[in-house]
Recover the amino acids of this structure.
């Protein structure tokens, strides 16, 4: 049913599904997009709104002075300012890649704003000709713009980081009668020359203009006049809307790829690409999704909308909502498509049955046993494409559930689930309406984490930026390198006193630098002022919290001294434990490295500190056992000369010992950590099967009656494709149903039928018949037995 509810909202276009997700209910009040000029930044960026001075609008309770307001994507106001600039009407505005708002007015003046509505100096001009002729239209791309004047001349700024306007080739000879119907640009990165190319719909044809040349497109398929143009994100496909109501898609040589006739020949108000598969047309109250099909998808809106193209879809902004329209990702379609029998779909279904304690979960897993890695990978990928947190959780749980059934030695990248969880935590944090950055996972990968963090800092979301930097390990690596460089420079000066430099830094108001320098002072007498510093900040809660956050991020020694001076022994213990893990990451910490000695000592120190408090009995016991396990693993690596034990679990340590034939060491680990008999049997059975030591396995089965029964012995042999070995244990299975299924798995139909008849289970006979569907003789045996049971009144 979950699949039905998810897929019911999809729309089919040709052989592709599309979905429209509501991301936010807009938080703003009394905003009518039809009365305003709107600029929306890509990658879930901010929205700039200002009253459109080219329209006559009714003023309600608002001031006659126009305000430039900047919102996040959820409609939360970030900043606003009064618009007082001269230069005529505002012709166009757009956001650059670094989220600077560019505003171009009628006389060609360029005004720039940051996200906090602060006007950036200096202002620039598109040039004297633009000032004299007036700008009538402009088309933006990432970091550039092309402006069209009333005289039909084109001017370009290729990069707003270095604003140098220049004039393009003069197309006036093509436009004696009227200005172009439409205009679009091919970005410099997609042209052969490396310069921008402008496409103009002029008269009945199309003209291309670059720095040096003007060309009339020669093609029989233009169907001009062209009313609207849009270039795809990769610069390879052109969509054009013609005067007779056709939407034509072509390559850049104007060879038609696909055309669609709309019901109306009125040009759309907006036209935008949705990925690389389809084009959106918006007119009046209708939004059409047109792709390579004779049909289209239509959505009705009772309020104006703005289309915001993204690399993997289109955001749709209206007065009340923000939605995201995209092609349904392949992994999502394979799971939730109605009637899907893909391995990933069956895995999600198996989890649902498992949660309901249904035996059908096991049946689903058996069906996809050989495809489990692909199913898990699809669930992880689909989770990344979801905006709904509960659905993310369900898909990741399904992936974890499937991963638990991987065979020993599987090559599946087991950390992919962890990495996806980390990515989704970042995405869910920035998608919160207070932050208002609704990134999809594809957009996040294109944008990169450092750029996202920079944008959060610019928006004054400093705490979240810091937390994400720490979580992703960005700030620690860069800051550690910076500190190491500073320390190296100070070491050049022989006999330098870090305390003296710290004192000077403190007097200069550089308190953070002073605290950092005190850490490197080796003479304790010089560090005494630092202890007085501890007493000072302990009495001030805000200063104390800032200090702890700082010291925890960059260096632990200073923080340990602080915790010891204030009696917070458990916090010191946690720091020591963390240091032991950091020491374990050292590439030299292998093959019996002496680095394991300090690691064990750090953990033992932590255990002693934990034991000082009654509230941390569990941590004390865990640290004690961790040190004991690490010591045993260190000894094993020394004796075997193989760096394969340290930091593995108790179960993995036992299993590895058995695989290497060191049964005495395995028994020692079992005794030391009081491993239960059931767990011991499970580990030894599958370890012996892994090395295919069947004699030892048989001998082990006869030592005493196995507390786990004989079913694990059977499964281990079958998984290793040793049917003959499995036959030694199948007759010992006490449950006739288990015997029947075991015989069926190794292809012995008659024996499976005999066991099933003892169970007197008609349903079991039906399932066994299906497993032997290709064997006519076997099927007839099961039919006969089922008929006999039916005659006896057994169902």
């Amino acid at each position: 049913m979950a699949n039905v509810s998810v897929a019911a909202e999809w729309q089919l276009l040709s052989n592709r599904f599309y979905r429209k997700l509501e991301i936010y209910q807009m938080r703003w009040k009394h905003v009518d997009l039809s009365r305003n000029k709107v600029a929306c930044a890509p990658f879930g960026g901010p929205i700039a709104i200002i009253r459109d001075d080219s329209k006559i609008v009714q003023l309600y309770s608002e001031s006659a002075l126009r305000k430039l307001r900047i919102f996040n994507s959820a409609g939360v106001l970030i900043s606003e300012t009064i618009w007082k600039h001269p230069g005529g009407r505002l012709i166009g505005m757009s956001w650059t890649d670094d989220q600077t708002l560019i505003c171009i007015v009628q006389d060609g003046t360029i005004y720039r704003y940051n996200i906090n509505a602060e006007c950036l100096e200096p202002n620039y001009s598109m040039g004297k000709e633009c000032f004299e002729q007036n700008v009538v239209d402009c088309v933006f791309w990432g970091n550039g713009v092309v402006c069209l004047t009333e005289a039909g001349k084109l001017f370009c700024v290729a990069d707003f980081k270095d604003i140098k306007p220049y004039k393009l080739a003069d197309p006036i000879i093509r436009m004696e009668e009227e200005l172009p119907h439409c205009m679009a640009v091919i970005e410099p990165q997609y042209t052969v020359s490396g310069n921008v190319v402008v496409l103009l719909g002029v008269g009945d044809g199309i003209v291309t203009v670059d720095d040096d040349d003007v060309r009339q497109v020669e093609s029989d398929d233009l169907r001009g006049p062209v009313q609207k143009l849009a270039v795809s994100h990769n610069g390879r496909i052109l969509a054009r809307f013609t005067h007779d109501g056709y939407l034509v898609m072509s390559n850049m040589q104007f060879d038609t790829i696909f055309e669609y006739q709309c019901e109306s020949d009125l040009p759309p108000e907006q036209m935008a690409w949705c990925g690389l598969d389809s084009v959106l047309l918006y007119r009046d109250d209708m939004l059409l999704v047109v792709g390579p099909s004779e049909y289209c998808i239509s959505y009705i809106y009772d309020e104006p909308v703005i289309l915001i193209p993204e690399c993997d879809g289109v955001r749709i902004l209206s007065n009340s909502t923000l939605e995201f329209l995209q092609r349904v990702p392949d992994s999502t379609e394979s799971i939730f498509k109605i009637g899907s029998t893909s391995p990933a779909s069956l895995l999600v279904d198996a989890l649902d049955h498992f949660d309901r304690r249904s035996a059908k979960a096991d049946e689903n897993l058996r069906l996809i046993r050989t495809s489990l890695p692909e199913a898990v990978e699809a669930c992880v990928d689909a989770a990344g494409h979801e905006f709904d947190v509960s659905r993310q959780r369900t898909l990741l749980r399904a992936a974890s559930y499937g991963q638990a059934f991987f065979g020993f030695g599987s090559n599946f990248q087991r950390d992919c689930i962890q990495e996806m969880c980390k990515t989704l935590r970042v995405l869910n944090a920035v998608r919160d309406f207070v932050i208002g950055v609704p990134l999809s996972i594809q957009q996040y990968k294109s944008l990169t984490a450092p750029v996202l963090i920079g944008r959060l800092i610019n928006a004054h979301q400093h705490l979240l930026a810091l937390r994400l930097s720490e979580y992703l390990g960005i700030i620690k690596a860069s800051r550690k390198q910076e500190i190491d460089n500073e320390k190296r420079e100070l070491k050049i000066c022989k006999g330098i006193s870090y305390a003296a430099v710290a004192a000077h830094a403190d007097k200069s108001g550089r308190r953070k630098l002073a605290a950092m320098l005190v850490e490197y002072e080796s003479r304790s007498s010089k560090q005494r002022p630092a202890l007085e510093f501890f007493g000072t900040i302990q009495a001030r809660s805000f200063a104390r919290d800032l200090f702890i956050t700082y010291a925890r991020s960059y260096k632990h020694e200073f923080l340990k001294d602080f915790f010891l001076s204030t009696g917070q022994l458990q916090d010191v213990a946690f720091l020591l434990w963390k240091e032991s893990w950091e020491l374990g990451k050292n590439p030299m910490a292998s093959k019996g490295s002496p680095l394991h000695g300090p690691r064990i000592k750090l953990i033992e120190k932590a255990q002693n500190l934990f034991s000082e408090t009654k509230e941390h009995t569990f941590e004390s016991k865990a640290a004690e056992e961790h040190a004991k396990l690490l010591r045993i693993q260190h000894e094993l690596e020394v004796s075997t000369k193989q760096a394969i034990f340290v930091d593995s679990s108790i179960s993995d340590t036992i299993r590895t010992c058995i695989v290497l034939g060191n049964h005495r060491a395995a028994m020692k680990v079992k005794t030391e950590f009081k491993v239960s008999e059931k767990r011991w049997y499970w580990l030894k059975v599958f370890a012996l099967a892994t090395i295919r030591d069947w004699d030892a396995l048989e001998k082990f089965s006869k030592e005493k009656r196995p507390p786990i029964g004989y079913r694990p012995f059977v499964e281990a042999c079958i998984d290793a494709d040793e049917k003959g070995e499995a036959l030694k244990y199948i007759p010992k299975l006490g449950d006739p149903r288990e015997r029947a299924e075991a015989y069926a798995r190794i292809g012995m139909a008659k024996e499976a039928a005999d066991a099933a008849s003892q169970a007197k289970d008609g349903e079991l006979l039906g399932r066994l018949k299906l497993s032997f569907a290709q064997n006519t003789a076997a099927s007839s045996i099961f039919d006969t037995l089922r008929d006999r049971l039916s005659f006896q009144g057994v169902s």
